[in-house]
Amino acid sequence: TARLLQKSEKLAIVGQLAAGIAHEIRNPLTSLKGFIQLSRMQDEHKQEYFDIMLTELDRINLIVSELLGLSKPIDVLYKEQDLKPLLQDVVALINSQAVMENVLISVAFEPDIPTVFCEENQLKQVFINLLKNAIEAMPAGGDIKVDMKHKGGKVALYVLDEGIGIPEDRMPKLGEPFYTTKEKGTGLGLMTCCKIIENHGGELNIFSKVGEGTTVEIVLPTQKNPAVDMPGTAIMI
Ligand code: ADP
Ligand code: MG
């Protein structure tokens, strides 16, 4: 088990800075990409050089996008929300990717789950990141379960996979920026999740067993917590 919030609290300032920088990098990247594509069309002899440049640009773009996920969106909208349609939307969004990887996602909700005071787009981002990780943890395919339950007056959400699992000694690394074990990973997904859940006054826990699978638990309060700085009070970037 790893309790990730303390780490994410430390990252709060770094995260906002990173998101600010990411925002500034985006436009020049788009312009660079356009000119490289143009040059590629005009110079047949150096196609492979241009292709490498474009691949590397895509890589920068991916990292920048993930860092941008850390920022509070300008049109941030916290409201009372039923999480069932939100989760169903996310599953529908990622399902075609799951099917291609031979992964079956099933969803189960306990009855009478209360609404949660939350930012819809940011919570969707969290579940997209978690489902992607679950899919990536099962290279040969398998089942993912998304559950929603009551937990002591709060709402608990679970993403369970039957993937490769995480060795105990790697647990403390989770949520650190750029910590990844994947060739094409960014190591920014879990950090973003932690930051968003922290913004909601919730907690994120990870349970895992090598060779058996991983469960990510998110516990969210059902009411606005006055002690937590809900975005909307400040625009960060
Ligand atoms: P990335 O997916 O880009 O590597 P993340 O922050 O999403 O970055 O995840 C960091 C690391 O945590 C992953 O590289 C992987 O080693 C581990 N991890 C996260 N989720 C899972 C999971 N469901 N099963 C196994 N390992 C996981
Ligand atoms: Mg990830």
TrEMBL record:
What EC number(s) is this enzyme filed under? 2.7.13.3
Q: Which organism is it from?
A: Domibacillus antri
Sorted UniProt keywords: ATP-binding, Kinase, Membrane, Nucleotide-binding, Phosphoprotein, Sporulation, Transferase, Transmembrane, Transmembrane helix, Two-component regulatory system
- Indicate the enzyme's highest-level EC class: transferase
**First and last residues shown, out of full length:** 181 to 417 of 417
Q: What is this protein called?
A: histidine kinase
Entry superkingdom: Bacteria
Q: Name one GO biological process term.
A: regulation of DNA-templated transcription
MF terms from GO for this chain are: ATP binding; phosphorelay sensor kinase activity
